[in-house]
Design a protein that fits this description.
By secondary structure, the chain is mostly helical. It contains five helices and no strands. The radius of gyration is 19 Å and the shape is extended. The model has no long low-confidence stretch (mean pLDDT about 90). The longest helix has 20 residues. The N and C termini lie far apart (about 60 Å).
């Protein structure tokens, strides 16, 4: 069993921390996320950092933690059931459509 799978999540201590020390909770959360990303395969770390940035933006923009949770849940289901998502890949046996990586670069001249 992988090392991270053996880790026991202590809900009670996290819950007490967020209630008693929200800043301490955020610092501990950031450390736990960074540790999880560092344990990931090097080829996936950049993608995980981009995803975490996106999730952090959802949290910042949401009016409440529950609103953020609902938005993140929708994001997850879009990746499962949306075009090129997990369900389409598994059922139809197609590889996901790779993201388009070309863009038109505009030149802005100094004034």
């Amino acid at each position: 069993m992988p090392e991270h799978a053996q880790h026991n999540f202590d809900f009670e201590s996290w819950s007490a921390l967020v209630s008693n020390d929200p800043e301490g909770f955020e610092a501990r959360r950031a450390r736990a996320i960074e540790e999880a990303i560092r344990r990931a395969a090097p080829r996936t770390q950049a993608r995980l950092r981009r995803l975490q940035w996106k999730l952090d933006q959802v949290r910042r923009a949401a009016a409440t933690p529950m609103a953020a949770c609902i938005r993140m849940n929708h994001m997850m289901w879009d990746r499962v059931t949306g075009p090129g998502g997990l369900l389409e890949t598994l059922v139809e046996g197609r590889a996901p459509t790779p993201p388009q990586r070309n863009a038109k670069v505009l030149e802005f001249r100094p004034r």
